[in-house]
Specification:
Number of helices: 1
CATH class of the domain at 124-275: Mainly Beta
Strand content: 25-35%
CATH topology of the domain at 124-275: Jelly Rolls
Order of helices and strands: EEHEEEEEEEEEEEEE
Distance between the termini: 138 Å
Radius of gyration: 58 Å
Structural class: mainly beta
C-alpha cells in the first residue's frame, strides 16, 4: 500500500495480531521517519479502558404556581318583613277599651285582700244578682300558676249556690269567648272565705274574663266600680260599664261559649288568685 496520510486510510474491518500500523512522522525529520505500532497493542488499549463516571443529576424543576381562589358565594335573600299589628279598638259607646292594664288580685296570707286595679279602692260588700253570669277582664303582667281561687261571702243564703268561671278572650271581638274553667258548686249557706283548689296558668299579657254566677242574692266582698277597668259607656253617661253579663243563666248551665246579652255598672265579686309560691 502506498504511503497515505492517516486521514486517508480506509476503515479496517479486520486485523491480525502481527499486523502493523505504520505511521510516518515528518516532524522533526522532514524526510519522514517511519514508526510502527502492533495492531494488538491498539486493540488492547481500546478494550481495557474503564467506564466513565456517571453525570451529575440535573437540578429539580421549580414548583408550579398556586391556583386562583374560587369565587365568593352569593348573598342570601332578605327575610320578609312581618305584618303590622292591628290597631286596638277605640273606646266610646260601642267598643271595649283596647288597653287593659289590669293587675292581679292576690289573696293575702292572713286577711282578705283588696284589689289595686285602678284606684286602690278597698273592697266593698254588694249583693249578687240571681242567675246572672257577670264577667270582667283580667290581664296579668306576669305568668301566674295558681293553686286556688277564692271568694268571700259576707252574708249567708241557706240553699243558695254559686260558681266561679273563667272565659278566654276573643281578640277579634275584644270580648269573652270560650269557657276554660268552671268551679265545683259552692254552698252559700255559710259566711267567710270559700277556696277552690285548682291549678290554672294565667299567661303574662293574655286577657281572661273572671266570672261569678249565683242562684241567690248572697252578699259578697266585691271590687267597687271605681276599682274596675272601664269597658264602655252608653248614652253619653259618665259611669262606665265594668262587666259583661249573661242574664237568665242558672247555676250549672253556664254555656261553653259566652253569649253577651247585657252590660253592668255594678261592683264585681273579688275573685282572688292564690299563686304557687
Amino acid at each position: 500500500m502506498a504511503d497515505l496520510p492517516i486521514s486517508s486510510l480506509p476503515l479496517a474491518t479486520t486485523g491480525y495480531p502481527d499486523s502493523l500500523m505504520v505511521i510516518v512522522n515528518y516532524n522533526p525529520i522532514t524526510s519522514g521517519r517511519t514508526e510502527s505500532i502492533p495492531y494488538s497493542a491498539i486493540t488492547q488499549s481500546m478494550s481495557g479502558g474503564t467506564s466513565g463516571t456517571s453525570g451529575a443529576n440535573g437540578t429539580n424543576g421549580t414548583s408550579g404556581i398556586n391556583g386562583t381562589n374560587g369565587a365568593s358565594g352569593t348573598n342570601g335573600t332578605s327575610g320578609v318583613n312581618g305584618t303590622s299589628g292591628t290597631s286596638g279598638g277605640g273606646g266610646g259607646g260601642t267598643g271595649l277599651l283596647s288597653t287593659q292594664n289590669i293587675f292581679g288580685n292576690f289573696y293575702g296570707n292572713s286577711t282578705y285582700g283588696a284589689t289595686a286595679a285602678i284606684t286602690a279602692a278597698a273592697t266593698s260588700n254588694s249583693n249578687s244578682v240571681v242567675n246572672q253570669l257577670q264577667v270582667y277582664p283580667f290581664t296579668p303582667n306576669k305568668t301566674i300558676i295558681s293553686s286556688g281561687l277564692s271568694v268571700n261571702s259576707t252574708s249567708t243564703s241557706v240553699g243558695g249556690t254559686a260558681k266561679v268561671l273563667i272565659y278566654n278572650h276573643n281578640v277579634a271581638n275584644n270580648a269573652p269567648s270560650t269557657k276554660v274553667f268552671e268551679s265545683a258548686t259552692l254552698d252559700m249557706g255559710s259566711l267567710g272565705l270559700k277556696t277552690i283548689s285548682t291549678s290554672f296558668t294565667f299567661t303574662s299579657g293574655t286577657t281572661y274574663w273572671l266570672g261569678w254566677n249565683a242562684s241567690t242574692t248572697v252578699q259578697m266582698s266585691c271590687i267597687p266600680t271605681a276599682g274596675l277597668i272601664p269597658l264602655l259607656t252608653t248614652g253619653g253617661g259618665n259611669t262606665p260599664s265594668t262587666a259583661l253579663i249573661m242574664s237568665g243563666t242558672t247555676v250549672g248551665s253556664e254555656p261553653t261559649t259566652f253569649n253577651l246579652n247585657g252590660i253592668s255598672q255594678n261592683p264585681q265579686v273579688n275573685i282572688l288568685i292564690k299563686p304557687v309560691i
